Amino acid sequence: MKAVKIVLGIVTALIVMFLLTGLIVTDVKYTAEVEINKPIEKVFEDFQNDELRKKWLPEVKSIDPIEEKEGIIGSTYKMVVTNQGQEIEMKEKIIDYIPNKKMTFQFDSDQMIKVDDYNFIANGNSTKVVQHCSVNSKSFLMGCLLPYFKGSLKDLSLSYMNKFKEAVEKN
């Protein structure tokens, strides 16, 4: 009986800690970066190339314009991605755009809001691309889970960045 109480106490403590995570951690932030052996103008141009995007973001099934604004900032798109065989629809909005310097996207799905801020830094004949990410959950349960997946999210971003590097350097 004493062992059952101990096990129940440990399980209860773990559940409480898990639920407290959702209250304490409101967003997850991480950074990924890559150095590309091409000039900044070429890297920035390729970053916006829809055909090349299919090579480094293979999960993206479609990107359809909802509203395209003249200055690019504020343009919105309907994006469909495949994740483990399931299609997920989200809204992509460009919230910042400085040619050859910066492009920031906000992705809004049923579960979360993610902001990807890409900064392009010239380094001689190569370009450093730094991606700052912030993920906020729309549900309490997802908020409890997100901090435990920060490493996986960062690894996925780094994987995409490396695929982008390969695609640009081959192009």
UniProtKB/TrEMBL annotation:
Residues spanning the membrane: 6-25
Keywords attached to this entry: Membrane, Transmembrane, Transmembrane helix
Signal peptide (residue range): none
A family per Pfam: Polyketide_cyc2
Keyword set includes Secreted: no
Domain of life (superkingdom): Bacteria
Coiled coil ranges: none
UniProt cross-references to InterPro entries, sorted A to Z: Polyketide_cyclase/dehydratase (IPR019587), START-like_dom_sf (IPR023393)
Name of the protein: SRPBCC family protein
Annotated organism of origin: Tenacibaculum pelagium
